[in-house]
Specification:
The structure is a single chain. Helix content is 16%, strand content 24%. It is an alpha+beta fold and 114 residues long. The protein starts with 12 loop residues before the first helix and ends in an 11-residue tail after the last strand.
Length: 114
């Protein structure tokens, strides 16, 4: 397996979905970029270029607490995945949350002793 590439096995599909929906996850102050395992892919086929997280849109006027305005704001940051809305497409609380997939540039640093 490649360096810094791990496979996690879950007891149920429910657990797997909870992990993918609940992030972002991190280990030792570094983000974990996750992909679902596909038996038809080679390790070299996997790309880790996105980190999804919830963005809280606060201080919006009540007229802006609909799906369109926060999604427009969040789309400037990355790809909008979902918005935390009720059945009437309105915010569930005083702030609105939007899940955004941010593009990540992976940088590998190599440290050598002098």
């Amino acid at each position: 397996m490649r360096e810094n590439l791990y496979i996690f096995k879950f007891q149920s599909v429910h657990d797997l979905e909870r992990v993918f929906e609940g992030g972002p996850w991190h280990y030792d102050n570094s983000p974990l970029l996750l992909n679902k395992y596909d038996t038809g892919k080679r390790l070299s086929d996997y790309r880790f270029h996105h980190l999804s997280m919830w963005v809280q849109c606060g201080c919006l006027s009540l007229g802006c607490m609909t799906r369109k305005v926060p999604e427009t704001i969040a789309s400037k940051m990355g790809d909008v995945l979902e918005a935390d809305m009720d059945d009437n497409s309105e915010a569930r609380g005083p702030c609105l949350r939007v899940r955004v997939a941010f593009k990540v540039k992976l940088i590998t640093l190599e440290f050598r002793s002098a």
